[in-house]
Amino acid sequence: MKKSIFTVLSAALLTAASATYANASPSTCANQDVVIGLSCTLGDKTFLFEEIKFTGANSASDLLDLSTPPTSASPGLAVLGFTVLATTPVDIELVYKVTSTSTNIVAIDSTFGPPQPAGSQIFESACPTDPTIIPPGCGSPYATVTNTTGLYTISSTFGPVSSLYIDKDIENFGFSTFTDSIEETTVPEPMAMSLVGGGLALLGMLRFRAKRS
């Protein structure tokens, strides 16, 4: 009987602890180590980091940090800025989920450096399904982008969608920083909307006069 009560109490405590963890509010994406399970917000987007792996000389002690700046959010763009605290050369695999409160994600882009050492590149996919789960893995990606120069490189447009997974393979031969951005559609400014409304009203008046004549 005592054993049964202990088992029930233990299960209840574990359930409560799990619920607390699951309901914990995400932090703001700024100045923190990137670890598996990190959840943070930037503007109207939530980022959940699912995988980070280092392959290099000191992979056991290598770190990846979110840095502000350049991590920031502005109309049409959410930027994650990373600092690589690792001995190069190093290969980094990074997977995270992006969820937006609106359906407005249309492209991804990246930069790295300076410097932009020869041989360095960032290859990433915007995936509709979780690439860490096989199958289905990434499935048919919305878009892919390969950055071999370090300069601003953007994918083709897709969607718009409200969520996706970013799957990155980073081959680093000497740079210490890189960015990853989520491009989004923007709501037209009030002036632009008024111009559009005025134009439609004018067209309506012209059609009405044409019918009367």
Indicate the CATH class: Mainly Beta
- Written as H for each helix and E for each strand, in order along the chain, the element string is HEEEEEEEEEEEEEEH
How would you classify the helix and strand content by structural class?
Answer: alpha+beta
Q: Biggest sheet, in brief? A: 7 strands, mixed
Q: Helical segment tally?
A: 2
Summarize the structure.
This protein is of the alpha+beta class and 213 residues long. Helix content is 21%, strand content 41%.
Description of the molecule:
This protein is α+β, with helices and mostly antiparallel strands. 21% of the residues lie in helices and 41% in strands. The chain has two helices and 14 strands; from the N terminus they run αββββββββββββββα. Strands 1-3-4-8-13-10-11 form a seven-stranded mixed beta sheet, with no helix packed on it. Strands 2, 5, 6, 7, 9, 12 and 14 form a seven-stranded antiparallel beta sheet that branches. β6 and β7 form a beta hairpin. The longest helix has 23 residues. It starts with a helix and ends with a helix. The N terminus is likely disordered.
How would you summarize the topology of this molecule?
Blueprint: H1 2-22, E1 27-28, E2 32-33, E3 39-42, E4 45-56, E5 63-66, E6 72-74, E7 77-85, E8 90-100, E9 105-112, E10 121-127, E11 143-147, E12 153-154, E13 163-172, E14 177-184, H2 190-212
Parallel strand pairs: 1-3
Antiparallel strand pairs: 2-5, 3-4, 4-8, 5-7, 6-7, 7-14, 8-13, 9-12, 9-14, 10-11, 10-13
